[in-house]
């Protein structure tokens, strides 16, 4: 079938894009014109009040004054408003400036030059007018914030504006923003009231905070990086701090008095943005979708602060299922939705709000009547404001423990619960089998279990009961249970106290039959003696390896004096002896006056690594006496590695220091870069890119020459100094570089010891370190 030809589709998107561009430009023009009219109207009002003019006469008078001053009407209007109210940022309540004999008028400002306000003040007044106009035109909080940023802050070098609204629980909600990307803004959508944070200190103290050089690395604030300048200003409405404005710069900035006055002046329109953009997302609105994600029942209760009545504000789906007998429960009083639980929940909610701490009850209501509604189990009441609480609970439709149904799937594990208020006890089915009792027999409370135990184990039960009832803390113990049929079972008891309103109301826990485990332990102990001899032999072998390593690579060697150098070497063994490794170092003066400096690391641990290390270290010592350069020495050492028993691989740095010209010719085989400390600044020397030793045959190793100066300190090390399980090697190298820069002036021995103390990897590996200083 032939498809009909389609006409061109290109113009439609083009026309739509043109229309959007045109409408956006028109809206921007309307906002500029509205801001202009707003500023002229304010100045006209000042002239009407000062000269008893009509609005039309005031407008003409403003035009004539502008012509006299040779300035634009809008700029003069900004000066007139400043003359009447003070520049933006002036303290509220300050009287306007006066002349001799009375206040200055607008004409005085024009004739005496008083109206020549600073450009920062004038921009602030323009930005305030633009903000008011954008708000009247229905702009969003982000659009109004953008007007404030473009009109008053960008000329000051600012990058972004963050506007935070203060919620009922002192959370900070991002209500308006401009200048940052959406991903950056999403990270700061909510700021919880964590103790001691910078934002909440400004919120509580109500005074601006100026950070021209940014914040420290431990203090996180919105902005491009910690070193960028920031200003944090409290926003007030009717004398109350209702939020914060945070302005950030691309980098450090000078926040002098004119800038601070301009920013303080822009705080007033910024505060009105929070009012103009009505709170759309309040904390209950955030709570609702959060509670809807839970699989257990949860609801939000709101207290009427006058009557004290609790209303159900929101229920998630599991909670709605538990109160399906009530039509439309949301919005009703709690007494109508859960009448049997009403009194207990009112008490828990009041305690949560007064103490600002979560409250817990094992069961609500405590007394359960047959035929009545199912109680709420494991109830938690959380305060989320002066009048709201969240109630979380577990539902149960049968008298059995929900935990029992889970433990019933596990062999030899049984659940129990003792209600200390009603005196009732409940066992899961498995408990009867463990104690050898018939199902249906009255369960034995934990506090009366002693007659069922071996008499030597009753003291352990008493200790557990003391922890549960007196110290109100959980615990566990192992006892022997004597069954009625004469059998003996080894039993582990693990229990936790249940508290209601701070009062011990019950005990819950599990019994676990560990008899099979006990018998297994007896069987294992019988074989322990046979294993001891083998373990002793292995320990002796490991000790010999460790002694061999320590003999070859001592922790603090005595180095002889070397021409033009001060040298210190350290070896730190692994944290655990079984990880004895193949790290080594060497400092060897040669007949031609040069000095061989080496650090290396054999992969792996144990005797194979140590024997491989001995082979490579001694081979390099002999090769160095040939007088060849480090690149050639490393190529020969690679061949030695390939022919060493066990096929090891290794990394190494090999250098030859010539005191005649203070040069270090060196090559690296996949080893970490040396650190050079010069004039208090530390840097990593970029090593030649060479493959590690023992990987492939016939390798050519590149070398480089580093010119050293008197006083330079060079440090060679192995990876045990910087490796971490939590961070990458780049972060470890940066930690080492910073630690070297912090070393106080001292000899190589003192600096080597200080560096080993300051920098420690967490892989429990051994470490070699060589520090040499040019005399």
Automatic annotation (TrEMBL):
Q: Any transmembrane segments, and where?
A: none
Q: Hydrolase: present as a keyword of the record?
A: yes
Q: Which SMART domains match?
A: ANTAR (SM01012), PP2C_SIG (SM00331)
Q: Where is the composition biased (Low complexity)?
A: 83-93
Region described as Disordered: 81-122
Signal peptide (UniProt feature, chain positions)? none
Q: Which UniProt keywords apply?
A: Hydrolase
* Domain ANTAR as annotated: residue spans: 20-81
Bias (Basic and acidic residues) ranges:
96-110
What name has this protein been given in UniProt?
Phosphatase
Traced from the root, the source organism's taxonomic lineage reads:
Bacteria, Bacillati, Actinomycetota, Actinomycetes, Kitasatosporales
